[in-house]
Amino acid sequence: MSGGLLASATPLAERYDLALVDLDGVAYRGHEPIPFASDGLAGARERGMRLVFVTNNASREPGSVAAQLTELDIPTSPEEVMTAAQAAAALLRSRLPQGERVLVVGGAGLRTAVREAGYVVVESADDAPAAVAQGFAPEVGWAQLAEAAYAVERGAWHVASNLDLSLPTARGFAPGNGSLVGAVRAATGVAPDSAGKPSPTMYRMAVERAGAREALVVGDRLDTDLAGARSGDFAGLHVLTGVSSARDDVLAVPGERPHYIGADLRALLVAHEAPARAGDGWWTCGAASARVVDGALELGRGRHTSDDAQLDLVRAACGAAWAWVDEGGALEPSSVPELAAELSGR
């Protein structure tokens, strides 16, 4: 798949038959809905696109996630939810016989997934678990992290549902599972295995379950959602409603670059233009233009007040910056301004 931004002459909801949609920062933020998420997803369904919500959050069961989405005017069934807890359980089964003991550090979603995979859930390192399954839950504290560390020190296999360092909430960014896993790793010196994004494991499980022809990953984080899309050879749409910004897009390393960029989930309902190389080093998209001169990004003159014009400026900047870096140049980060800030609420 192309290393740059892609063009789509038709709305993405018509080009792709399945959307693998992240939750935190895309469909909701904490317990609050993200503006236009319901509109975008409803419109996508109307155009024939199926949805699977793929989340690195392992604390809750699919039914609980589906109920929250439904309450936020995004009607969802449990079968349309794929969690990192389910992926972690699948990873356990890749080398651990059923019936073994697993110390679970996390919420109900992870405990249920591990039990359903055929393991005996224990809560103490003294129960001699063969593995530790760790996922985020608000109630996880020092005592649980200590038990995990004791078990890993004694040889238990450490499996993390995901390694996200932060978690978007209605009040801001809070420590994510990766931060909690980091405490266990710091205590033991043992690096965990993880099935969560950026591993494409969950995406592939969701595509297989749905029997999809061509799937589109939709996320707000370049280092997890979009990196997973790249590593799994899926097209990825970055929406500017969560962690990563439009400036982050311009500065993205090749393995984390999106294929499409949109302000919010309404981006599923429109066609997308890709930037094109023009003369004198300029890259253009719509009426916007950008180029890199001696490692510094330059933006074309003109007003970019509409949402579409701001997004085109981001796309042009990505085209210029990515080409410069891919051709061996070094881009000066300080030359890249915040872009489309009002679109992402920054």
From TrEMBL:
Keywords: Hydrolase. SUPFAM superfamilies: HAD-like. GO terms for molecular function: phosphatase activity. GO terms for cellular component: cytoplasm. It comes from the Bacteria. Transmembrane segments: none annotated. This is HAD-superfamily hydrolase, subfamily IIA.
